[in-house]
Design brief:
CATH architecture of the largest domain: 3-Layer(aba) Sandwich
Subcellular location: Cytoplasm; Plastid, Chloroplast
Shape: globular
Number of strands: 34
Structural class: alpha+beta
CATH superfamily of the largest domain: P-loop containing nucleotide triphosphate hydrolases
Family: Belongs to the TRAFAC class translation factor GTPase superfamily. Classic translation factor GTPase family. PrfC subfamily.
Protein name: Peptide chain release factor 3
Keywords: Cytoplasm, GTP-binding, Nucleotide-binding, Protein biosynthesis, Signal
Helix content: 25-40%
Pfam family, one: RF3_C
Number of domains: 3
Radius of gyration: 25 Å
Largest sheet: 8 strands, antiparallel
CATH topology of the largest domain: Rossmann fold
Length: 586
Amino acid sequence: MKSLLIITSLLAITVDAFTATTGSKTFARRSVGVQASTLSSESSSSTYQAPLSEITKRRNLAIISHPDSGKTTMTEKLLLYGGALQQAGAVRHKAEQRATQSDFLAMEQERGISISSTVLNFDYQDYTIRLLDTPGHQDFSEDTYRALAATDQALMLMDAAKGLEPQTRKLFEVCQLRSIPLFTFVNKMDRPALSPYDIMDQIEQEFGLEPHPILWPIGDGDRFKGVLDRTTNTVHLYQKAEKRGAKAEATEVALDDEQLKDLIGDSELYDKLMEDAELLNEMIPPLDMERVMIGKQSPLFFGSAMTNFGVQLFLDHFCRMGTEPLGRETSKDILITPDYGEFTGFVFKTQANLDPKHRDRLAYVRIVSGKYEKGMKVNHSRSKRQYNLAQAQALFGSDRTSVDEAFPGDVIGINNPGSFAIGDTLYSGNSPIAFPGIPSFSPEKFAYIRAPNPSDYKSFKKGIDQLLAEGAVQALRQRNDENGPLLLAAVGQLQFEVVQARLLSEYKVDSKMEPLGYSLARWVDGGWEAVEKADKDGKLFGIMIVQDQWKRPVLLFRNDWKAASLAEEEKYLQLKPWSAPPAMDD
């Protein structure tokens, strides 16, 4: 099934639209239960073959959570233990603390939230790790879903005091439908927390996902002493670091060590630990990595990112348990494996002004197969044109380093002349390859935007064009009115605020917004002829008719009922709640 499902609610849109581009091929990226052609090392003799040693050492991980679960803090601590930082930042930092590496936009640092997905790279032991830190706020969930398209596994962070929360539920559902392996980390155990058993029950009952405890907590709140590593029966007792943001010191002791009770210093917690250890061994099925890989079982960890308890242990286990880069299925049901001899990759994010001094534009490319080499030529599947990748960059938040080569699983930044859009495929060789596109979801907020000062128009237009290319908001206009007022469309109000803030900070331009009273959009696959017929028949009363940046018809509705009613009664319109860049010969 290659078409997207028509979805009538935001939750359904954000879940189904994300998975429906592959439809029944959800498991194909792992070659599970799918009859598909495969392109691997035997299919090409290109010099762009990636060495097996480079493939097997790579791990990538998207970090996802409900807002305020400690996601950015967890990211910083993983960087700290990975040796990428000397001292971790804090989201709500004091004067003496450094700013976080993953939240580098000014608005992120001011508000203490992530509003854009970030790529962070570091080496740890014998592995090369790619972290994708994603926004937690629901207004930026679309950016999170794009990051999930680029990852092979995800870390779901939960607040120990709150358990499963609304955004957590949405993201769990997306990961399960995409068969993305999930690692679960229950954070903030240094605060009063729910029972670990209650948290396990929530995960299992609501998602049918079997949690398998790897790190088990010893106490919570002020009595949080450390964790039991059930894989080694070793207890790790922590001491808070003297300097905030530094690594925590830990004492390791065997579970059956006679000194353990005295080291814990709390007989009640000791007795509870011994009881829990015995109970878990009796009731928890063995860890089955095959079930983890298809999203049926989740390794479960407890700890505290703020105090560093359990963070390095998680990193150690993730490197051992996590999967190396996986293949990806094309739009023609061909599975491209990492050892395929040609370079293939896809754009999952674009970003303007990573370097404000140069007003640059960057496309984030996830490499699926083959090897990137400096100066190589690649084909652009949508335009059928060839581009010279003269320079690529490894990404670390807003910092960049030029690289001469990169391998499957890596995310590289390439200069974007304005030709690359989210979902585009790049490939070497003579065999055309196109991966399924990454859709944009139905917006729910609409507002006209303008520059109140006419002298600012040139800077205003440049800023708007570059920010629109990032895909955080969409641009709509009246039909055939290129010079008319620009209508912005977004999933949430905060996206509008970000656009205005970035116009002011990055382009020195004031802007004014005029909200409209519409609540959702539908793209008309039937084309303008279908729209004209429905309009002539009086079927579009109270509905606003506009066009997107590719001049395709879009209808704006004031409520779900009207949209569903029109879709049912006028099927020739072929209403869709999503959009993707068209092929350039469309």
